[in-house]
Write a structure and sequence with these properties.
Blueprint lengths: L1 H12 L7 H8 L3 H19 L4 H17 L2 H19 L4 H16 L3 H19 L4 H16 L3 H19 L4 H16 L3 H19 L4 H16 L3 H19 L7 H13 L3 H19 L4 H14 L6 H19 L4 H25 L4 H4 L12 H4 L9 H19 L4 H16 L3 H19 L4 H16 L3 H19 L4 H35 L1
Helix pairs in contact: 1-6, 1-8, 2-3, 3-4, 4-5, 4-6, 5-6, 6-7, 7-8, 8-9, 9-10, 10-11, 10-12, 11-12, 12-13, 13-14, 13-26, 14-15, 14-16, 15-16, 16-17, 17-18, 21-22, 22-23, 22-24, 23-24, 24-25, 24-26, 25-26
C-alpha cells in the first residue's frame, strides 16, 4: 500500500508532455502498455532522424519515463529520466530549466521506486537550481519544496518535512492568497505532519483553516475537502471530541462518494474510522449502520472476496459480538474475516492476528455462557452447545478456495449450501437457519437479485406460518429474528418488509405492551430512521452530482 502511495505521489508531480495524438488516444482509453509501445516507436524514429541529443528526442525520452510510471514500470522510468537528464545536460547545460525539469522527474521516479535517498538528493538539487533561477516564491520552487517534503515524510524525517511545508504555505499565501491551491495543499499536508509529530492542538487549528479554504475554493464535494476532513477528524478524536470527529468523517465520506460516483465505495478505512468515532460518541446503533452501509457498498463494488470487505466485516463482527442478541451473526462475520484476511495479507499480518485473537476471546466467553446456561441440566446437554453440534460459520466452506474464486456466484452458491445444511441440521426456525437465510438474501440483494431475495424471505415466513399457524406468536418471533439478522447485515429493504410483518403480528397476537411486540416495534422504528438518513444522504449526493456536472 505504501508503495502505491509513493507511486501516486510521483505521478501527480511529474512534468511530462504527451504531444502525439496516437499516444493521447491510447492513454485516454487507459491503454498504458499501448502508449508505451507507440512512444517507443516515435522515440526510435526521432533518434534515427534527429539524433539522441536533439530536443525532440529528449522530450520523447522524458515522455517515455512518464508513461512507464503510469504503467508501473518504475525501473524503466528511472532509466528513461536518467537519459533525458544526461542528454539535456549536454544539449542545454546543467542549469537550463529543461534539465532541471528532468532532474525533478528523476527524483520523483526514484521516490516511486522507494529510493528515498536518491529522490532526496535529486529533488534537493532541483530545488537549489530553481531557487537560484526563479526566486523562492515561484510556483516551480514551491512544487520542488512540496515534493521534497514528501520524500522527507517517506524517510520519516518529519521535522524537515514540516519546515518545507511551512515554507510552501508562506510563499503560496504571499503570492496567491491563503486559498491558493498550493497553499491549501501545503496546509493540509502540514496538518498531517503536525499530527505525526504529536502537536495535535496546532494541527487542529491548521486543518480547520484547510477545510474551510478547501470548501470555499473547491466546493464541499471535492477530494480536497475529503482529505482535510479526514485529517481534522483524526485531530478532534485525539482531543476527545468524538462527535466532531464523526461529523467531519461524515463530510469526508459524502464528498468522496460525490467525487467517485455511485459505482465505487470509499473503502474500509473511512467506514471503520467513522463507526468508531460514532461509537465513542455514544451511538452504537448509528455506528453499526455506517458499518453495514460500508459492508454492502464494498460487496456491490468489489465482490465478497475483497480485502476491504473482510476488514469491514471484522469491525462489524467485533461490534456485534458485544451484544448478546447479535453475537452469533457477529461470529460468522469474524470467521469470514479471519479466513479472508489470512488469504489476502497472511497469518502474520496485524489485521489477521487481531481478528484471530478477538475471535478466540469471544469463543472463550461463549463457552462460559454456554456452561452457565447448561448448569443444572443433564451431562449430555452440558457438552458442546446445549448438546447440539457446534455451529460452523461460512468461513469453513471458503477454506481451500483461491482468492480469485470469490465471485458473487461463488458466494451465493456457498450460502445456498450453508442454508440447506442448517435446515437439515437444526430445523427451519433455529437461529442458525435464520442467520443463513439472512446471509444468502443479503448476497442475492447485493448482487442485484432482489426478486429472488424477497422470495427467499417470503418462503421462510410462509414455511413458519404453515407449520406453526398463521397467527401463532412463535411464527412472528421467527420473523422478528430474521428481520434483525437482515438489518444487522445492512439489507434494509428486506429487513423493513420482514420486521413490519413481525411487528404487526406480535402486536395482534400478544398485545402492544408485550416485550416481544415492543422489541419488534423498536427495531422497525430504528430501521426507518436509518432508511430516512440514507435517503437524505442520497439526495445530498444527487445535488452534488448535479453541481459537479455543471
Amino acid at each position: 500500500m505504501e508503495d502505491r502511495k509513493q507511486e501516486n505521489r510521483a505521478k501527480m508531480g511529474m512534468n511530462v508532455k504527451f504531444e502525439s495524438p496516437a499516444v493521447k488516444s491510447l492513454l485516454d482509453r487507459g491503454d498504458t502498455e499501448g502508449a508505451k509501445a507507440q512512444l517507443a516507436k516515435e522515440l526510435a524514429a526521432s533518434a534515427r532522424k534527429k539524433g539522441r541529443d536533439h530536443a525532440d528526442t529528449l522530450e520523447l525520452e522524458n515522455s517515455m519515463g512518464g508513461a512507464c510510471i503510469m504503467a508501473g514500470d518504475l525501473e524503466d522510468a528511472v532509466r528513461h529520466f536518467e537519459r533525458a537528464l544526461e542528454g539535456r545536460g549536454r544539449t542545454f547545460g546543467p542549469e537550463h530549466p529543461e534539465t532541471i525539469t528532468a532532474l525533478h522527474n528523476l527524483g520523483l521516479a526514484r521516490l516511486s521506486l522507494g529510493d528515498g535517498t536518491g529522490a532526496r538528493d535529486d529533488l534537493a538539487r532541483a530545488l537549489d537550481a530553481r531557487e537560484r533561477a526563479l526566486g523562492k516564491d515561484h510556483s516551480d520552487v514551491c512544487s520542488s519544496k512540496y515534493y521534497l517534503a514528501s520524500v522527507f515524510t517517506f524517510m520519516e524525517d518529519h521535522a524537515s518535512a514540516r519546515a518545507l511545508y511551512e515554507s510552501v504555505l508562506e510563499s503560496a499565501s504571499r503570492t496567491g492568497g491563503p486559498t491558493h491551491p498550493d497553499a491549501l495543499r501545503a496546509m493540509t499536508k502540514l496538518g498531517e505532519t503536525l499530527l505525526v509529530l504529536g502537536e495535535t492542538v496546532e494541527a487542529e487549528e491548521i486543518l480547520q483553516k484547510a477545510l474551510k479554504g478547501a470548501s470555499d475554493q473547491c466546493g464541499i464535494f471535492s477530494r480536497e475537502v475529503a482529505d482535510a476532513g479526514k485529517l481534522l477528524a483524526r485531530a478532534l478524536s485525539r482531543l476527545g471530541d468524538h462527535a466532531g470527529a464523526a461529523k467531519n468523517l461524515t463530510l469526508a465520506l459524502v464528498s468522496l462518494k460525490a467525487v467517485q460516483g455511485p459505482q465505487r465505495t470509499p473503502g474500509s478505512v473511512i467506514y471503520n474510522d467513522l463507526s468508531l468515532e460514532i461509537l465513542m460518541a455514544g451511538d452504537i446503533n448509528c455506528s453499526m449502520w455506517r458499518l453495514q452501509e460500508g459492508f454492502q457498498g464494498t460487496l456491490l463494488t468489489y465482490g465478497p472476496d475483497h480485502l476491504d470487505a473482510y476488514r469491514i466485516a471484522s469491525t462489524l463482527g467485533s461490534l456485534l459480538t458485544s451484544t448478546r442478541t447479535r453475537r452469533e451473526i457477529g461470529l460468522w462475520l469474524l470467521e469470514m474475516a479471519a479466513e479472508g484476511l489470512k488469504r489476502h495479507v497472511g497469518e502474520g499480518h496485524l489485521d489477521s492476528m487481531t481478528v484471530r485473537a478477538f475471535l478466540s476471546n469471544i469463543r472463550i466467553i461463549l463457552r462460559g455462557d454456554d456452561a452457565d446456561g447448561a448448569a443444572g441440566q443433564g451431562e449430555g446437554e452440558a457438552e458442546g452447545v446445549s448438546g447440539k453440534p457446534e455451529p460452523q460459520g461460512p468461513a469453513d466452506l471458503f477454506k481451500g478456495r483461491g482468492a480469485g474464486e470469490g465471485t458473487f456466484q461463488e458466494a451465493v452458491f456457498l450460502f445456498r449450501e450453508i442454508l440447506a445444511e442448517r435446515l437439515s441440521r437444526f430445523g427451519r426456525g433455529h437461529k442458525e437457519t435464520l442467520a443463513a437465510t439472512a446471509f444468502l438474501g443479503t448476497y442475492l440483494a447485493a448482487g442485484g437479485n432482489r426478486e429472488e431475495a424477497d422470495g427467499l424471505y417470503r418462503k421462510a415466513m410462509d414455511d413458519a406460518a404453515g407449520e406453526l399457524g398463521e397467527g401463532n406468536a412463535d411464527c412472528f418471533k421467527e420473523q422478528l429474528e430474521l428481520g434483525k439478522n437482515l438489518q444487522t447485515l445492512g439489507e434494509l429493504k428486506g429487513a423493513e418488509d420482514v420486521l413490519s410483518r413481525a411487528a404487526d403480528g406480535l402486536r395482534e397476537s400478544l398485545g402492544a405492551d408485550h416485550p416481544d411486540a415492543r422489541d419488534a416495534s423498536e427495531w422497525l422504528n430504528k430501521l426507518r430512521v436509518w432508511v430516512g438518513e440514507a435517503a437524505e444522504e442520497k439526495m445530498i449526493l444527487k445535488i452534488a452530482t448535479f453541481k459537479l456536472k455543471d
